[in-house]
Please model this.
Amino acid sequence: MAVERPLPIPDSDELFSVLGPSPLRTLYGWLYRRKSGNPPTETELQMFMADAMGEAPDDCERRLTELGRHFDIAWTDDGSGARQIELKGWSDSAPSAGELEISSRLRAEVLMSHRCFQCGRTPKDHHVVLDVDCKIPQSWGGGTEIENLQPMCEECIEGKRDYFQSFDALADKIRLAINYEEPQRRIGELLLAFGEEWVRSDVLAMVASAQEYQEDWQRRLRDLRFLGWDYEYKKRTLDGSGRVWAFYRLKQAAEWPGNIHGAISAEAQRRKELKKG
Model:
């Protein structure tokens, strides 16, 4: 039985918050457009997944199972013996907002270090309770792949959640920023989203590493100056803790070139030749 609430529109922020940057959004959009009196057959589904998603017929059942964690997917007979697939609504077992849906195996893998990623405390020595945390919150578009998960104690998770909630008003813009392919653009778009507000370095680092870990994300930040962007920097202590944090704020933005990496390399070479001259 489906939960009675409207289905999210394809390409909407609501759908992104549920499925993240997953190929499932492509499959969902197709089923959504076919749900009114024209549900596809199993054969049509296999052809669509091969053409639009580049996936094999054997992947159909798996993809529908993944989609079925959130939505009610019904299999019916069209009268000729062919099976049809219909998107009917929300699943009554769909995870609630903020609930982290991962397998017990993945949970065990994340917690294997037995140590909080942030404070370093352990259950054995400090009697803390560890849980699985998303480095990039799901409300920002973060997924549940292993690269986005980390072990954290309940106290650190609560503190991090309180801090990140202060940016809830910008969650839509942050979700857009983290989906660009180039780390430089993810950083630039995030600074642009914050406007005149200062952005703490750990937030920039997480968005820079949204699709692949950036060991030297500060270098990716400096790359922006090769593209006509500029920013300012300051340090300050927060909450009387004595810990000093770095903050960044955008001063100037510019249009993105078609080839960001190529434009950075070309400008670096140009400056190098000017310096020689």
